[in-house]
Amino acid sequence: MFSGGRILVAAVGAIVLIVVAVYAVRSVWWDPASKTTSLTQLPSATTTASAAATTAMSTADASAGTQGTPGGGGGPDGTDNGSSTTASTTTTTTTTSSAATTPFTAKTDKVNTFLGTTYANVSLPQVDGGDSAVAGVFNDEMHKVLQSQADSLTGGRLEDRPGSGVRIGQRVLSGLLRTAAVDTTKATSRPLVGTVVVDAQSGSVITLSSLFNDLNSGLKLLVQESKKLGPSSTAGANFDGTKLQATEQTFDHWTAETAGLHVFFDQGTVAPSSSGIVDITIPWSDLGDAMKSGVQQIVSS
């Protein structure tokens, strides 16, 4: 009896221990509060990290967009945003404006080569700046003048002579090329001259036809005025006005000066060869009635 009671007490104690153990294990592994908290915190931590990364990227983009780099900035297409775009636009505008207002300047290009069978060693008048298209026309025309002089020779060479240059007016570019044609076989030389006149705004080449309302009437007027002025030239009394013809070839070489139309007569055409190239300046006022409207203002500028 006493032994049976001890067995019953032991059994009850074992059951109590089992129950306590079950509750202990459940409190550790299946605590609802612990499980809920763990699942809630993981997304929270991920969201925080993502937000921090987004903030850092936004800061970097803003910094790149503000600073700008030659290789591209913070824009989605690799271009700079914000102040860098404004700076680029300003630079372009300034450059364009500067190019449009840059004045023409005279220069020379050294030509040292064969032009056909003629060897040229010449400083060729050219221009820089201004309207690039107009400068291109003028420079090309001066090259044509040099080529024409070379083509007029059979062998030999072309050399510099004093007096070449460019007059740059407000509306006109006027070029003069003086050279010497050297015959190496005869050891002689003769002077040559060539001219170019270009409208500095339109880029049009100005010819005698451009000057006069009627070319034939204009040429006759040039002959008349040349006869008056010839004796006061370097040829003096040797100037022979009877040799003047009312043709474009006679007055082919001329420059536009402020004072008037500066004519150059080839050697031997209006005076003995010893007089060289004879030149005179016919005042614009003496040609005014025969000239086209507005042209005098251009060529005399």
From TrEMBL:
Coiled-coil ranges per UniProt: none
The DUF3298 domain, residue ranges: 244-285
Transmembrane segments: none
Biased composition (Gly residues): 68-77
One Pfam entry name: DUF3298
Sequence segments annotated as region (Disordered): 56-99
Amino acid composition bias (Low complexity), ranges on this chain: 56-67, 78-99
Name of protein: DUF3298 domain-containing protein
Organism the protein comes from: Mycobacterium aquaticum
